[in-house]
């Protein structure tokens, strides 16, 4: 069992408690495969033989992922069906905003302060998510990744100076991208450009972290989903990328995308040689975020209001309120992968030109 004590998992199964106080778990227990409600630990089994399973799909011949919140009986019976044991809670919106903010503050502080800095580095982009994680481990080195001139490098330098933190810069190159893409595809089993673009900088940053002797990487994952960090959430219901009619409903849609994202990111970071640590995805933070009303998520163009307000007492205002670009854009990974595709003859007028380029690197 990864991520939790087996007795705690047994209790969560018996009580059908989706948020029993962990940062995610997966594994085999009492003849059953289990994966937590947000899928924070990937788990796979052979399609026709659930007795054969692994945390890495590459160990299997015909792997299928165990969906989040489910139990798969390990019987060897091809007809055995998964059982949905846990579902993400859907609490009503909090009406006492002061109490809701205090709950978020306590949950975030407890989670980030509980991180051990043994063998730990921090993925640091200069945004509020990674900054509050870094604040919990003041002695851990911070790493930022990107091409020369990238937004994330400039923002991370400014934030590190303001916070008086050690910052190490991992500069991306075209040669590194061309080498890393096949390794990433092998780790993920995916070739779609968006996934590759997102994890490219993470993979290369994690490689450097591992080479420097660290085996754990703290990340700010989950904050955008839990606290309303996406533009499409802020624009709900007018943004066609979300189905919800409210900001709060759109934020929940984003939370429900986490299992697929986390499988991608965790597999990538492990392939690079580090174990991810995501304190903002701790059960207590999830439980504190789910009841937030829309006005504590987004208002007047300001996103992640509850999180920014909660951490204002420990972060400089310029950092707590900093805007953040998605990693593939803030590091220029998306732009440069597209440039390499075009230089290799895969022009934008061609259908899926970047994916064609990615697949060409596998040959």
Structure description:
It is a single chain. With 363 residues, the chain is an alpha/beta fold. The protein has two domains: 6-84, no CATH class; 97-335, HUPs (Rossmann fold). It has helices at residues 6-15, 97-113, 128-136, 151-163, 174-188, 193-211, 223-227, 231-234, 247-255, 258-272, 283-289, 305-311, 317-320, 327-330, 333-343, 353-360, and strands at residues 26-29, 32-35, 44-46, 49-54, 63-65, 70-73, 83-84, 120-123, 142-146, 167-171, 216-218, 275-277, 298-299, 302-303. The mean pLDDT is 95.
Percent of residues in beta strands? 5-15%
Distance linking N and C termini: 37 Å
Number of helices: 16
Write down the CATH class of the largest domain. Alpha Beta
The residue-averaged pLDDT reads 95
Q: Kindly report the CATH topology of the largest domain.
A: Rossmann fold
Helix content: 40-55%
Q: How many extended strands?
A: 14
Q: Name the CATH superfamily classification of the largest domain.
A: HUPs
What is the chain-wise order of helices and strands?
HEEEEEEEHEHEHEHHEHHHHEHEEHHHHH
Query: Low-confidence spans: pLDDT under 50, at least 5 residues?
Result: none
With strands numbered from the N-terminus, the spatial order across the biggest sheet is 10-9-8-11-12
Given helix and strand content, the structural type is alpha/beta
The CATH architecture of the largest domain can be named as 3-Layer(aba) Sandwich
Number of domains: 2
Please outline the major beta sheet: 5 strands, parallel
């Amino acid at each position: 069992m990864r991520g939790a004590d087996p007795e705690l998992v047994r209790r969560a199964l018996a009580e059908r408690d989706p948020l029993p106080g962990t940062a995610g778990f997966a594994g085999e227990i009492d003849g059953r495969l289990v994966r937590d409600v947000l899928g924070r630990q990937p788990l796979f089994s052979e399609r026709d033989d659930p007795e054969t399973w692994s945390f890495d799909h590459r160990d299997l011949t015909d792997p299928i992922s165990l969906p989040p919140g489910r139990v798969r009986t390990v019987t060897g019976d091809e007809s055995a069906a998964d059982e949905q044991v846990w579902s993400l809670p859907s609490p009503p919106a909090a009406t006492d905003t002061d109490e809701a903010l205090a709950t978020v503050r306590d949950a975030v502080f407890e989670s980030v302060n509980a991180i051990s800095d043994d063998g730990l580095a921090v993925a640091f982009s200069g945004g509020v998510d990674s900054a509050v994680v870094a604040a919990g481990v003041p002695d851990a080195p911070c790493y930022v990744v990107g091409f020369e001139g990238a937004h994330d490098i400039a923002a991370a330098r400014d934030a590190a100076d303001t916070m008086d933190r050690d910052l190490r810069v991992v500069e991306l190159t075209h040669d590194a991208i061309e080498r890393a893409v096949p390794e990433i595809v092998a780790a993920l089993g995916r070739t779609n450009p968006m996934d590759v673009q997102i994890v490219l900088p993470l993979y290369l940053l994690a490689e450097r972290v591992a080479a420097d002797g660290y085996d754990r990487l703290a990340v700010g994952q989950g904050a955008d989903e839990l606290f309303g960090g996406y533009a499409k959430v802020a624009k709900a219901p007018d943004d066609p990328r979300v189905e919800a009619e409210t900001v709060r409903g759109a934020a929940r849609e984003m939370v429900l995308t986490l299992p697929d994202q986390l499988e991608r990111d965790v597999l990538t970071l492990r392939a690079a040689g580090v174990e991810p640590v995501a304190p903002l995805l701790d059960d207590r933070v999830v439980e504190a975020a789910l009841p937030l009303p829309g006005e504590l998520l987004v208002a007047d163009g300001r996103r992640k209001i509850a999180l920014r307000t909660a951490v204002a007492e420990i972060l400089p205002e310029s950092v707590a309120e900093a805007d953040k670009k998605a990693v593939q854009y803030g590091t220029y990974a998306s732009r440069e992968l597209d440039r390499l595709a075009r230089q290799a003859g895969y022009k934008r007028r061609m259908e899926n030109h970047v994916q064609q380029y990615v697949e060409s690197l596998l040959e």
